[in-house]
Amino acid sequence: MKIVGITGGIGSGKSYVAQIIERTGYPVYYADKEAKILMNSHPSIIRALVNWFGTDIYINGELNREKMASHIFQNDSLRKRVNELVHPLVREAFLSWSLKQGKPLVFNEAAILYETEAYKKFHEIILITAPVELRISRVMSRDGISKEQVLDRMEAQWGDDKKLSFGPFEIINDSKLPLLIQTEEVIAQLLKSDD
To answer: What contacts 187, CB < 8 A, 6 or more positions away?
Structure first.
């Protein structure tokens, strides 16, 4: 079994590509969704977040994501502490899940594989890229936030050039190049390199 990461900057369309991969018959684990579930349910995470951010970081038992974002996208050390708390538990859940899949390729969709050095735990990485202005407009429209808020979030992630220097497979999601063809080509290469 080959474990493959799917990553890309905010607004690149990595979740959309992950859904295409699922439709081709391969399992995809959505790490960011799992992190959200754990942040609302795991006792040690809840305890730490309340300790760091105060009791109003949760509203009716749900993480106040807006408040969390306002803190961590302005403070590198806080963001790092939250990542170091949550991501090991997400990775542990992924490894357990992946062993049950019974497929030659298992995918993990996650936003910050390079920034947290989690990329080292994968056999291969697929990087989803898109032009910056397109990414900004996608996120503004999807999340209903300002351009400045999008730029803050983009600043918290590595740029595509830095990620591409690691030599991952690239899928370009620019609304022009056909995603299905690119995705099928990458899957074929991943299967071939496993022979």
So the answer is: 21, 24, 26, 105
Show the domain range for 38.
2-192
**HSE (side-chain half, CA atoms, 13 Å) at 133:** 0
Residue with tokens 């990458």: 186
Token output for 87:
């991501």
100: left (phi over 0), alpha (psi -120 to 50) or beta: alpha
Four-residue CA torsion sign, 129, 131, 137, 140: positive
- pLDDT for 6-19, tens place per residue? 999 999 999 999 99
pLDDT at 106: 97
The predicted model scores a pTM of 0.86
Task: Return the amino acid letter for 69.
Answer: A
The CATH number of whichever domain residue 28 belongs to comes to 3.40.50.300
- Provide the domain count of the chain: 1
